[in-house]
Every structure is written in C-alpha cells, then in structure tokens.
Design brief:
- The complex is a heterodimer of chains A (about 300) and B (about 180).
- Chain A is an all-alpha fold.
- Chain A contains nine helices and no strands.
- The longest helix of chain B has about 130 residues.
- The interface between A and B is large, with 61 and 44 residues.
C-alpha cells in the first residue's frame, strides 16, 4: 500500500507541476475526497492538455449501462451474475451427488468441505451444521465477486462498492445477535456482553462501553470496511500501474521505455490481488463464524 | 467549465464509504436468493453424497469382514472334515488289517484241521485195509494150510465143524508162535 500511495502521490504531484493555475490540494484531507476532486480536476486538465489522470474514487462510479436507473450499473450486474454463477455451478456440481464424484462434483465438494470443516466445525463447534449453508453462501459469493476484480473484461471487484459488503455485514450482524439472544435470552445475552465476568467491578466503567461498542458498532463496521477497503485499494493499485503504463506508452521516448516496468508491476500485482481476494473472502467468513461462535458460546 | 465538470464529477463519485442504497438492496436480495438455493439444494445434496460415501465404505468393510469370517469358517469345516476323514481312513485300515489277520488265522486253522482230518482218514483207511488184508490173508492162509495139511495128513477133513476147529486151532497156534 505504501508503494501505491507513493506512486499516486508522485503522479499527482507531477501532473500538477505544469499547471500553476490549478489549486494545490492538501493531501492530508480525506483520501477519497482528494481523489474525487483531483479526478475532476484532472479530467479538466486532460481536456486542456492531455496530462496524466490519476485514478481515483471516480473510477469506482459507473454510469447505468442503459436508462438512467442506478439499478443497471456494472457492479449491480456483477453481483447478480456472481449469485447466478455460484448457484448454477454448485447446482450442477451437486446434481448427481454420486458416491464416486466427477471432477466438477469433486471441486464443489472440496469447497464445501473446506467451509464446513475449517470455518464451521473447527470454529463454531458442535452446533456448526446450522450455520454451514450461510457460511458456504457467504464464502462463495464473496470470493466470486472479489475474483471479478481480475477477470478479463470485468476487472472490477464488486465488493469495492461499499453497499455490497454492507449488505453481507447486515446478514452477519443480524444472525449472530439473533442466535445469541435465542440461546441465552435477551437479558442474559446483553448482560454477558456488557459485564464480562471475572474482572474487578470498577473496570466495568471502562469495559462496559467498550464491549457494547465492540459488539454493536465496531464489529459490523470493521467487517464491512475490511472487505470493502481491501478491494477498493487493490483495484486502485492495479489502475495506477496499468493506466500509468498506458500513459507512459503514449508519451516521450524515455517513458515509453519505462512503461513495461509499470505494466510488469501491474501484472505482478494482479497475482497478488488474486491472493488478497481469496484471503478477504476467507477472513470475512472466518470472522462471521467467530462472531457466531462467540454469541452461542456458554460464556462470552 | 472546469467548475462544472468538477461539480459533476464529485456528485457522481461521492464518498466511496457512503453505501448506495440500491447496491445494499441488490446485495441483500442476491445473497438471500443464493442462500436459499444453497440451503435447499446444494448443501443437502453434498451431505447426501457424503453420507452415501460413508455408507459405501463402511458397508464394503463390513461385507469384507463377513466374507472373511465365512471363508475362515469354511476353512475350519474343511479342515475338520479332512481330519475326520483321516481318522476314519486310519480306523478302516486298522480294521482291515485286523480282519485280514483274523481271516489268515482262520484259514490256517481250517487248513490244519483239514490236513489233520485227511491224515486221520488216511490212517484209518490204511488200518482198515490192513485189517482186511490180515483177515483175508488169514483165511486164505488157513484154507491153503488146511488143504495142504489134509493132503499131507491124508485125512479128509470133510466134517465142517471139525475142519473149522482144526483151522482155528492152527491159527491160534500160528498166532501163539508169532
């Protein structure tokens, strides 16, 4: 990430050097704000002189494919497509449910077993089977949407639109509180959260607000943000190297020679992104399982 | 103009951290539908496949164990039968040997008896023949001697009684001289 920021910074600085008329933006402002502003500025600069447009949050905004409704944008289509792809693949894979599995069935089973064992049984314990369908859906849906980030011609991770991680977070949030309340009763559940047993009484002054904040605000917020920010940053990183390489290729000879380096980085980072995309799907599901396990555990 | 673009762009871009309601709703619905498919179809099918596989493997093992037990039982029964047969054969052989010995003994006894009987019969017949020969010889010797004596003596020994008395006396003398 540091590299990415440096590069972005450099590029921004460089592109702003030649334009005295452009107001220098303080970079210490919110990054996203800076990005959107600088994008707008750069867009105007591009119109004027053909300078480099640094990628920013504007690249995460899509016009509707048709009509004017926001319902028909690329990320929305991708989310729906991911759901369809996952559903169709696993329906085909599990169709025969044969004792001796075909290649497709074996692959589907492997993914399912992985979620069931590593994320369900090992973490939630003996009541895990109830939550396996949810965890399985979560993992497959997220991983496919994430991998859209490096699929040619799509190349946009759906989860870098904050709305989608939020939607998934809502499920996790509702489920882990619901199972906790159902198991312990509302009063005991809240009491267990607010008053952690086995600490001196005066510590509750600090601990209780922290615990309540953790369970009701911090957990869901960080869960959604983690996924979103990783996808957002990763996509931005790829954009910087690939659009930068493209820009250099259409510039002076020195930059032309340098551009393969930028493309090379872009390709290398694509592999890295693949790793991050899988990892984040795993982490989101893992944390969901941990929260559920915590909620139904006998003592918090 | 640049201000216009700026406004337009920031309006569109917004803060990426503010979720768009449309996307949240689409996310909720897409995920829910996917979840229903997974829960109602995919997960039960995979679980069924797993259960079937466990059954198949366990069943196979049980069948193999059963077959092994059967084979062991069959082997044991064959071995038992074999040892029975061996015992029986041994017994039969001994019986046969005993019988053979008995038969031989019996035959030998019978042969001996036969031989004894034949010997005894031969002896008896020889004795009888000898007796007969002695008797007839005596009679003939008597007759011849009488004839001879009468001739020598010249006395006609016509009287039967006398003749026989003379003969008897002669024979008794003969025997007494022997």
């Amino acid at each position: 990430m540091q590299v990415a920021q440096k590069v972005t910074l450099k590029v921004t600085q460089r592109s702003s050097e030649g334009f005295a008329s452009r107001p220098l933006l303080p970079l210490c402002l919110g990054r996203s704000l800076t990005h959107s502003r600088s994008l707008a500025l750069n867009a105007s600069i591009l119109l004027a002189s053909g300078g480099f447009v640094s990628p920013g949050s504007g690249d995460f905004v899509f016009k509707p494919v048709f009509g004017t409704s926001i319902l028909f944008t690329k990320p929305v289509f991708q989310a729906i497509l991911a759901a369809i792809l996952v559903a169709v693949f696993f329906l085909i894979s599990s169709k025969k449910a044969a004792v001796i599995p075909s290649r497709t069935q074996f692959f589907g089973e492997s993914v399912y077993s992985f979620v069931k064992k590593d994320l369900g049984e090992d973490i939630i314990g003996h009541e895990f089977m109830k939550f396996v369908p949810f965890l399985f859906t979560l993992f497959t849906f997220i991983i496919v949407n994430n991998i859209f980030g490096i699929v040619p011609f799509m190349q946009f991770p759906t989860m870098s639109r904050f709305g989608f991680p939020v939607a998934l977070m809502i499920f996790t949030y509702v489920i882990y509180h619901y199972v906790g309340i159902r198991k312990h009763g509302l009063g005991k559940y809240l009491k267990d959260i607010a008053f952690v047993p086995g600490v001196p009484k005066w510590i509750y002054v600090i601990l209780t607000p922290l615990e309540i904040a953790t369970y009701f605000i911090i957990r869901p917020f960080t869960l959604a943000i983690r996924l979103f920010a990783n996808m957002f940053a990763g996509h931005l990183l790829l954009l910087v190297f690939i659009m930068g390489g493209d820009y250099m290729l259409h510039n002076s000879m020195v930059l032309k020679i340098m551009s393969p380096l930028s493309f090379g980085f872009g390709i290398g980072l694509t592999f890295f992104e693949f790793f991050i995309e899988c990892l984040q799907a795993y982490i989101f599901t893992l944390l969901t399982a941990l929260y559920i396990a915590g909620a139904i555990a006998d003592e918090h | 103009m640049s201000t216009q673009i700026l406004l337009l762009a920031s309006e569109e871009a917004g803060l990426p951290i503010i979720p768009t309601l449309t996307e949240v709703i689409v996310g909720l619905i897409a995920f829910s539908l996917l979840f229903i498919v997974m829960k109602s179809k995919v997960v039960p099918r995979f679980e069924k496949a797993f259960a079937d596989r466990t059954d198949a493997i366990q069943g196979g093992m049980e069948r193999a164990e059963q077959a092994q037990a059967e084979a062991a039982a069959a082997l044991k029964s064959y071995q038992d039968q074999l040892s029975d047969a061996r015992g029986e054969a041994q017994k039969l052989r001994e019986e046969a040997r005993a019988q053979g010995a008995a038969i031989i003994e019996e035959m030998r006894t019978k042969a001996q008896e036969e031989a004894n009987r034949i010997t005894a019969a031969a002896r008896a017949s020889i004795e009888a023949e000898r007796q007969q020969a002695v008797t007839s010889l005596m009679q003939e010797v008597g007759t011849i001697a009488t004839n001879l004596a009468s001739k020598i003596v010249g006395e006609a020994l016509d009287d039967q009684v006398r003749q026989s008395r003379v003969v008897d006396r002669f024979l008794a003398d003969l025997e007494g001289s022997k």
